[in-house]
Write a structure and sequence with these properties.
Elements (H helix, E strand, L loop, with lengths): L1 H16 L12 E7 L4 E10 L2 E10 L2 H14 L4 H16 L5 H7 L12 H18 L6 E2 L3
Parallel strand pairs: 1-4
Antiparallel strand pairs: 1-2, 2-3
Helix pairs in contact: 1-2, 2-5, 3-4, 3-5
Length: 151
């Protein structure tokens, strides 16, 4: 189990230091700001949607390694997926980091995202891990307010 935990930590550090899908998306159909005042994480999430498919997802901002890694892994995992799939993945990911009660099939469905399961042990870091996800959820639900982990 220690080797697996080390691998997960390496993936989080790699995505935190070298986030994928980082930068502004010039032709975004949706964008939304998200903020975590406890940690200082700030992101702007950009989504290009075409016929219900998230064809491109990018983000920019700054934050802790958990926040950046989660944003990076989310964008990597959901790009090319439908809005319906993205909403389902939001629910699964939220469950993963808040209570960890997932079946093996659900864990497999999350793919690389399961590396963030250890956040469950650090309640203050849950908000860091879910910031990008709540921001995406607001986009998917046409919520016009700025996303804050404290609201």
């Amino acid at each position: 189990m220690g080797d697996l935990r080390e691998l997960y930590q390496e993936v989080i550090l790699d995505h935190g230091r070298h986030p994928r899908h980082f930068g502004k998306l010039a032709f975004a159909t949706h964008s939304k700001e998200g903020y975590n005042p406890l940690c200082g994480d700030q992101i702007t999430l950009y989504v290009e949607e075409n016929a219900g498919v998230l064809t491109n997802i990018r983000f920019e901002g700054c934050g802790c390694a958990i926040s950046m890694a989660s944003s990076s892994l989310m964008a990597e995992s959901l790009q090319g997926q439908t809005k319906v799939t993205a909403m389902e993945m939001f629910q699964l990911f939220h469950q993963l980091v808040t209570n960890g009660l997932l079946t093996e099939i659900q864990l497999e469905r999350l793919g690389k995202l399961k590396v963030l399961q250890g956040v469950l042990e650090f309640p203050l870091r849950v908000k860091c891990a879910t910031l990008a996800w709540h921001t995406l959820n607001a986009i998917l639900n046409n919520d016009t307010t700025t996303v804050s982990t404290e609201s």
